[in-house]
Amino acid sequence: MVLQRDLSRRAVLTTALGALGTLGLAACGSGADDAAAPAGQTRKVATDLGEVEVPVNPGKVVAADFYPSFILQDLGITPIGVCEYTEDLVHPAYRNLLSLPKIGPNGQPNVQEIARLAPDLVVSMGYASGRSRMQPVYDQIQAVAPAIVLLSSSQAKFWRECADRLAPMIGREAQGRKLRDSYEGKIAEIKKQRAAQLAGHKWAYISQGNNSGTWTLNMAGSALGGVLADAGLQFGKEATGQTKNGQEFSYEQFNAIADCDVLVYPVTYDGKPRQPVQAVLEQSTFRELPAVKAGRLYPMPNYSVASYRIATDALNDVDKILAGL
């Protein structure tokens, strides 16, 4: 439904600030398909919470959680506030986000901080499974400013679905199309130029498990796993045909990836495995795997795929590995 804006915004903000606890935010800048649109002009867009009237050329956009700030920046919009990020996990192209005002941890946005920034648009992206938990927060956001809420049920498709949907909503369709074309063009290039390497190798994407003494085999349903699948990589027998995020194994079960001759694992942007991943790599049974003994264990800094730019850089990482096989 269309949000009603005939109440005084000052009155709404006063009520929100007095009664609400937590919420989240970010914001935006200039340059877009609709950059010349008159101030105050709006359009109706279909969000996952119903139809919302939003600015045609928003000037102050709040990103209420992890994904929007990356996607907004890809689209030429610089946020004015973001959630808290771990510095060594932020892609170098987005390091400016670290110096912006923080509105709380991811998933715990603060409505008071959003109200202080006085946004003309809030963008939130989350999983459909968490909608009931987050609905009170969405209601609070809508009391502060028009809100675009986009929900996804797939980790692998999350960033792409949200980026493709958001771009035309905020007048950045041309920028969005360019980003999509770059990503899809790189996929086509890899499949054409690395056909022999793609056909001749099986890959496994591994990381730490959720429990002590375990590791995870990430599959096509995970963020990076979806990019690897897009590139045309072949997975080992345990992951072939699987669309789930991944499966946890004990340290005694590294034989699950013994048929893979290329292994990749997540690292920070300074090249260091996170401590739980390092523990997996140090296991003697892991070091005995054929791929490891053959020197085909590769770090993947762009594993936390949150935008087309990061996904395309992940493809570049894959291309470099393929070129050396």
TrEMBL record:
<comment type="similarity">
    <text>Belongs to the bacterial solute-binding protein 8 family.</text>
</comment>
<protein>
    <submittedName>
        <fullName>ABC transporter substrate-binding protein</fullName>
    </submittedName>
</protein>
<feature type="domain" description="Fe/B12 periplasmic-binding">
    <location>
        <begin position="60"/>
        <end position="325"/>
    </location>
</feature>
<dbReference type="InterPro" id="IPR051313">
    <property type="entry name" value="Bact_iron-sidero_bind"/>
</dbReference>
<keyword id="KW-0813">Transport</keyword>
<feature type="signal peptide">
    <location>
        <begin position="1"/>
        <end position="26"/>
    </location>
</feature>
<keyword id="KW-0732">Signal</keyword>
<dbReference type="InterPro" id="IPR006311">
    <property type="entry name" value="TAT_signal"/>
</dbReference>
<dbReference type="Pfam" id="PF01497">
    <property type="entry name" value="Peripla_BP_2"/>
</dbReference>
<dbReference type="InterPro" id="IPR002491">
    <property type="entry name" value="ABC_transptr_periplasmic_BD"/>
</dbReference>
